[in-house]
Amino acid sequence: MAAAMRLLALLCLLLTTRGEAKGPELTVDAYGDTQTAAAVDRTFCLGQWNGGSWVHDPSISQPYARPLKPKTELERNQMCTAEKDKSWQYTWQQGPDVDERCKLVRPTPHQLCKALANKRLLLIGDSLTMQMVVSLTKLSGTGEEEVDDNLLNTGCAHLTCDTDDKGTQASFTLCKLYAAKMLVEPFPRQEFLGGVCKLPPERKSFFQFVSAEELREYVDAADYVIINEFAWWVGHMHKDLRTCLGARMSAGDASEMAFSAITELYRNQTWTKTAVMEGTQTPVYYRTATPGRPERSQVHGPMDLKAVKAKLFAYGHEHYARYNDIAREAYTARGLNMLELEELMVPRVDGHPKGDAIHYCLPGPPDTFAYVLYSFILPRDSAGNPV
């Protein structure tokens, strides 16, 4: 009941902060650019990473307007970069054949704040999505006290930030929904593989199911929706099923069977959710998954894309490309969008805390999501200024 009330409150916040307009209406000018007098469409840039590379730039200063104030062990681990590898000191060097309008921009806190003003962002995912929520709040200069603890799991925050040095303020709404709280029927609530394996008690209580109508309401109430659930599926879900099957067969067979079952569940959920979201006026993006830190590897900075693909990973992360293909097929078939970041972000296997191959240091690689959001999704004019 408490979880249901929390989701209802989240939807109410989305709806009460939602204005009549969804953002600047786009038209096509005489030069073929999609734009109005103010906004230029740069979504065509997504996925144009060919020929580019990450270059170390020690002149880049720590990007957060306010420092992290860790409340949990995970958040304390995320601060590792500030003292060690400084993984924020890499800049993306665009390939020679990429459209010059597709430059990945690092906005100032004022610029990002202005671009986010009056927007409603809904992010659906796992703990990696949570890191991107933290990154957005820090890069835009929002006040620490405004971010409720629930935002890091499932909830909304109405945030304020400064758009200039004079203290002119703007506000935006940022919502995070945890993947386990947004499962849509049909889904095996109690068991896998015809009753051979049952979900652990802690997982049963952790799941929350929403109707197709509820999911559509969340999506329609937002200005932008960005989804990625990969790490949760191949991490938590695969581990539960693999552990159960391991009592009945070899470890290798258990892992393979568990992966096959989880992949089919993921495929089912992906097609179910995209069918629900089809036709929405809200731009919906699937953020392509990327792997964590490779096993038995010393990583000091970004790694060549081909070298990453040859590595072994923990928690099933080596399957990222297969899961991206499943999402790509479903989202494009339903007329939804892909936030194609494989070539950009797969090389960023650096910037992880010691002993944590999944999460990243902050500031660090997750900040790139905010740069992509600013550069190609949030409206900016022909000169590159936020509108």
**How many domain regions?**
1
Q: Please tally the β strands and state the result.
A: 14
- Using the 3D structure, state the CATH architecture: 3-Layer(aba) Sandwich
Main CATH class: Alpha Beta
Task: Characterize the main sheet.
Answer: 6 strands, mixed
Mean pLDDT: 82
End-to-end separation in angstroms reads 41 Å
Radius of gyration: 21 Å
Amount of helix: 25-40%
The computed structural class is alpha/beta
What percent of residues are in strands? 5-15%
Outline the low-pLDDT stretches: 19-37
Q: What key attributes describe this structure?
A:
globular, 387 residues, alpha/beta, TBL_C, 12 helices, 35% helix, TBL, O-acetyltransferase activity, signal
Write a structural description.
With 387 residues, the protein is an alpha/beta fold. It has one domain (2-13, 40-377): SGNH hydrolase (Rossmann fold). It is 35% helix and 14% strand. It contains twelve helices and 14 strands. The protein has a six-stranded mixed beta sheet with strand order 6-7-5-12-13-14, sandwiched between helices. It has a two-stranded antiparallel ribbon with strand order 1-2. Strand 1 (27-28) and strand 2 form a beta hairpin. It starts with a helix and ends in a 10-residue tail after the last helix. The model is unreliable at 19-37 (pLDDT under 50).
